[in-house]
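Help needed: design a sequence for this.
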């Protein structure tokens, strides 16, 4: 695709965004949401062991005379006993088949000590562990649109798309709501689910922006091109927008979404958010990684080690390439994170900046690599990005590595390698 073509698309996108400007009044950008962190009640998650005589590894609870309804009633009784014993209120129960546990959420009264309540719950044999309900924040903010996509040139998207476009690869976007009706995301969302209690699905800024960077449709004459324009999005609303600049999630909403992404066997799981270490989410991420699902997370430059889940072992942590950050335990990857045009609710496009959006680009690149991968064997090794000096990603070399021994290798070699050689770029190296 030529620069002239991209400029024509951008001009048309700007015209459409301007024509639809009335749809972006401030009140349209704030979703009706649960209480924010300043007023939300304190809550504790207790992971209840499944009834041992009937639980099965596959997450079902069949057995002679023991139905799902009976198991649920048993766990509800256990939750009620725990609540009564410690002066708590049972809010909800949620099955976590991937872990073989059930998550009970308890609300603490104002006078209760959080640490003491957790310790008391953990003393019960039916409780595997207890933890606070942590809060997470999306990383990134919106800015005026004024520049073309950096990945188009830095990652040589034309050359990558000559080989693979992420076709049939499922990318789970665990975020705020995605605008499925956006013309640049036509038929991109294959599955969606809402895990924010008390709210209907709503299109929101952050999730829609990440989705566009991953899978905005190519060659439709409008807007932008996602890094994986033919990927299948699994849009999971686990976060809600308090305002145009603040997007929140919590342990339970994220755990529900992660469980769903694991069950859906999404090849890539994107988590453009950050918060404190969370045992429940860490266990679920471990399950996903054990199933060869790639997990991508945004680095929080203000948090030790880049924050969670970016610092969790095995997670692909993505930072802003313009910021000099020390490498975390995983080896932080950098990607374009400034002035990225992308989709926003209502059919428009805007410029965004932040590591949230850099993470979305990396998830798109992994989807392209997954399509080009030489084997469809479920036991295949994890995809491996190739690092440039400074922590950036050599997209062409990464695709070459994924396509090794496949029929896709020759087009990549004659495309990306020729472009890199002409630009005088040094060859990439594996980390």
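Sure. Designed sequence:
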């Amino acid at each position: 695709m030529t620069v002239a073509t991209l400029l024509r698309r951008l001009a048309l996108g700007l015209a459409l965004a301007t024509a639809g400007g009335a749809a972006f009044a401030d009140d349209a950008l704030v979703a009706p949401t649960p209480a924010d962190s300043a007023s939300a009640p304190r809550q504790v998650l207790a992971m209840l062991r499944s009834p041992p005589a009937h639980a099965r590894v596959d997450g079902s609870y069949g057995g002679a005379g023991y139905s799902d309804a009976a198991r649920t009633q048993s766990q509800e009784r256990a939750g009620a006993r725990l609540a009564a014993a410690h002066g708590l209120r049972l809010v909800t129960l949620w099955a976590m088949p991937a872990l073989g546990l059930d998550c009970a959420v308890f609300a603490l009264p104002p006078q209760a000590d959080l640490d003491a309540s957790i310790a008391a719950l953990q003393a019960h044999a039916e409780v595997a562990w207890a933890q606070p309900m942590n809060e997470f924040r999306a990383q990134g903010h919106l800015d005026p649109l004024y520049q073309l996509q950096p990945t188009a040139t830095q990652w040589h998207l034309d050359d990558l798309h000559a080989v693979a476009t992420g076709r049939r690869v499922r990318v789970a976007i665990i975020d705020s709501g995605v605008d499925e009706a956006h013309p640049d995301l036509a038929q991109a969302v294959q599955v969606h689910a809402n895990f924010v209690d008390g709210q209907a699905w709503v299109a929101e800024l952050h999730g829609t922006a990440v989705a566009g960077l991953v899978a905005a449709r190519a060659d439709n004459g409008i807007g932008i091109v996602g890094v994986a324009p033919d990927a299948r999005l699994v849009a999971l609303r686990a976060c809600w927008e308090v305002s145009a600049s603040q997007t929140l999630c919590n342990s339970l909403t994220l755990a529900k979404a992660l469980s769903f992404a694991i069950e859906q066997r999404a090849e890539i799981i994107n988590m453009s958010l950050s918060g404190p270490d969370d045992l429940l989410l860490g266990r679920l991420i471990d399950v996903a990684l054990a199933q060869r699902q790639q997990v991508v997370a945004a680095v929080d430059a203000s948090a030790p080690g880049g924050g969670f889940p970016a610092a969790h072992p095995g997670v692909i942590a993505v930072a802003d390439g313009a910021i000099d950050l020390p490498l975390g335990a995983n080896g932080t990857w950098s990607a374009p994170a400034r002035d990225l045009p992308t989709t926003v609710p209502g059919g428009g496009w805007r410029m965004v900046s932040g590591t949230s959006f850099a993470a979305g680009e990396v998830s798109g690149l992994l989807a392209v690599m997954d399509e080009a991968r030489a084997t469809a064997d479920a036991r295949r090794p994890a995809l491996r990005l190739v690092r440039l000096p400074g922590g950036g990603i050599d997209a062409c070399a990464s695709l070459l590595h994924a396509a090794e021994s496949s029929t896709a290798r020759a087009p990549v070699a004659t495309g990306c390698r020729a472009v890199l050689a002409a630009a005088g770029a040094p060859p990439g190296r594996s980390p």
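Residues 1-39, 53-66, 141-147, 422-431 have pLDDT under 50 and may be disordered.
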